[in-house]
Amino acid sequence: MAIATPESYADMLDRAKAGKYAIPAINVTSSQTLSAALKGFADAESDGIVQISNGGAAYWSGSSRADKVKGSIAFAAYARAVGDLYPGTIGLHTDHCPKAMLEPWILPLLEIEAEQVKRGELPMFNSHMWDGSAESLDDNIEIAVDMLARAKAANVVLEIEIGAVGGEEDGITGDENANLYTTADDAWRAIEALGLGENGRYITALTFGNVHGSYKPGHVKLRPEILGEIQDECAKRLGDRLSSKVGDTSSPFDLVMHGGSGSTDEEIATAVRNGVIKMNVDTDTQYAYTRPVVDWMLTNYEGVLKIDGEVGNKKKYDPRAWGKAAEEGMAARVVEACERLGSVGSAKR
Predict the structure, then answer these.
(1) Is 209 annotated as a binding residue?
(2) pLDDT in tens, 227-274
(3) Helical spans, DSSP H, in 166-313
(4) DSSP secondary-structure letter at 104?
């Protein structure tokens, strides 16, 4: 599995849009969870994206150090070191960077990548997300314009979010009673400011009632059909300008879906039909990783603990034993994500 180049990453996104499927983007927090994601993509013969949030980046550097930049570098270096052991193509992404994290996290990474590109090297990552969902739309777009220029200089893709996702993820919070539905006018503002790719490639999260975290179906009123309505309205406003855009000219946006836990298969399918090419998966894979560990500890209780002066069973408390079970559980959930999003078999051979 080769880590994507800027060209193969663009191709991966283009093929998803043309093929009407979405690529799972799996959040990882350690080499073990990264290995689980890679195994899952390989088992599904799918391309994929692995990504880190700001909290995940900090954890990668060691929980006692919490250095987001060094953790990001470590994540990317490990992924590149082991990536070719697996078939397919994998993109590397930084997820949900709010305004407060730009200076200490993403801007330093973009500076490193711009220097790499100047030296004729590949950039460390394939894409970065600017999360302006907590800002006013004016401020969100103003910062997005600056970030897009920086991303273009680093030869990476920028992800933006127009609208607010409810729930919580690494300190990114949204009130579930707030306006969680992006309008066509909101989306049009992004096109007017950022263009259609001539200023650098970007992908867009438009919100349709999404909520981060775990919830039961029916808790949130998802309206994925509004994604198609926004695509249609913006396409009409663009008119002939779309003729110069590569791909599906009826859908100006390459869309991302956040907060998909608890979504029904039909809701996901509708979102994908309306232009979603990347879907973030975090909460469900966290549980899929942890659940086998719980089973292991409960089943092997007397072996993992040294009870009443006994020595325990090294084969049971060896982290490789229960870690392998966790890896297999998470990998299976990644396969399920590939199946639900239609990306199975998408990996180029």
Answers:
(1) no
(2) 999 999 999 999 877 665 544 557 899 999 997 777 889 999 999 999
(3) 184-194, 225-238, 265-273, 283-299, 301-304
(4) I
Q: Which two tokens stand for residue 228?
A: 């198609």
pTM over 0.90: yes
Measured CA to CA, the distance from residue 44 to residue 24 in angstroms comes to 11
Distance, in Å, from the CA atom of 226 to the CA atom of 179, rounded to the nearest integer, reads 14
Q: Which amino acid is at 79?
A: A
Measured between alpha carbons, how far is 77 from 220 in angstroms, rounded to an integer?
A: 38
The response to whether 212 counts as a known ligand-binding position is yes
**How do residues 264-297 score in pLDDT, each as one tens digit?**
899 999 999 999 999 999 999 999 999 999 999 9
The set of residues, in sequence order, having a beta carbon less than 8 Å from that of 317 and lying 6+ positions away, is 303, 304, 305
Mean pLDDT of the chain: 91
Q: What is the DSSP letter of 44?
A: T
Domain coordinates in residue numbering, the chain: 6-341
Q: What angle do CA 141, 146, 152 make, to 5 degrees?
A: 115
Strands (E), the chain: 2-3, 23-27, 48-52, 89-97, 127-130, 157-162, 167-169, 172-174, 202-206, 255-257, 276-281
Q: Per the annotation, does 260 bind a ligand?
A: yes
* pLDDT > 90 fraction of the chain, expressed in percent and rounded: 83
Determine if residue 96 is labeled as part of a ligand binding site. yes
Flag whether 161 is marked binding: yes
* 311-347 exposure pattern, b = at least 16 Cβ within 10 A, e = fewer: eeeeebbeeebbbbbbbbbbbbbbbbbbebbbbbebb
Q: Is 261 annotated as a binding residue?
A: yes
| Amino acid (1-letter code) at residue 146 | D
Question: How far apart (Å, rounded) are the C-alpha atoms in residues 214 and 30?
Answer: 21
Q: Of 43, 67, 84, 95, which one is the catalytic site residue?
A: 95
Is residue 95 annotated as a catalytic residue, yes or no? yes
Q: What 8-state DSSP symbol labels residue 137? A: H
Name the architecture of domain 6-341: Alpha-Beta Barrel (3.20)
| Residue keyed to tokens 């990474």 | 109
